[in-house]
Amino acid sequence: MDISYMELNEDRIDLIKTLWEKLRDHHRELSPYFPERYAEFTFQKRKEDLLEKSENGILRIDTAYDETSKQFIGYCISSILDEKVGEVDSIYLDEEYRSSGIGDALIKRALNWMDQNSVETKRIIVAAGNENTLAFYSRYNFFPKHIILEHSNK
């Protein structure tokens, strides 16, 4: 596997659209209570939310690129807000590349960037139904702090 890592400027965020849509579809399939919200959530809306967030802070887009297939295979979007709060906003890696250290490299790039920017609090929001990722995040000292409940109109 010949994988390269690169940071994208915000104006190149569309390069991860297909990967983000795979993540959204994954969340929709796993969501026990809100699958319709994922079905309605578009990349354009997510992109607008992230770019708006970057106006009030700093946004970073790390990618993993397979040099053999000439395709982006993973990404990690992270941000830093005014109060020195860093967040891994979105991370995805194509299934066939998992358990190969690529996800590890992506999240470490984000966390190192946060450290370089003197972030005091780091967080990741995990969608309900996607709890199987908690073991991965615990390797980087992320643990559940709150459980937020939201009313469903079902």
Q: Would you write up a description of this structure?
A:
- The chain has a single domain (about 5-140), classed as Gcn5-related N-acetyltransferase (GNAT) (Aminopeptidase, 3-Layer(aba) Sandwich), CATH 3.40.630.
- By secondary structure, the chain is α+β, with helices and mostly antiparallel strands.
- About 35% of the residues lie in helices and about 25% in strands.
- The chain starts with a strand and ends in a 16-residue tail after the last helix.
- It is globular and about 45 Å long.
- The chain contains 5 helices and 5 strands, in the order βαααβββαβα.
The name of the CATH topology is: Aminopeptidase
Label the CATH architecture.
3-Layer(aba) Sandwich
Extended strand count: 5
Which CATH first-tier class would you pick? Alpha Beta
* Number of discrete helical segments: 5
Secondary structure: helix percent: 25-40%
Low-confidence stretches: none
Shape: globular
Relevant CATH superfamily = Gcn5-related N-acetyltransferase (GNAT)
Give the overall pLDDT as a whole number. Answer: 94
- Biggest sheet: strands side by side, in what order? 1-2-3-4-5
Instruction: Give Rg in angstroms.
Output: 15 Å
Described by strand count, sense and barrel closure, the largest sheet is: 5 strands, mixed
Given helix and strand content, the structural type is alpha+beta
SSE arrangement, N to C: EHHHEEEHEH
Strand content: 25-35%
InterPro entries: Acyl_CoA_acyltransferase, GNAT_dom
Protein name: N-acetyltransferase domain-containing protein
Domain N-acetyltransferase: 3-154
GO molecular function, one term: acyltransferase activity, transferring groups other than amino-acyl groups
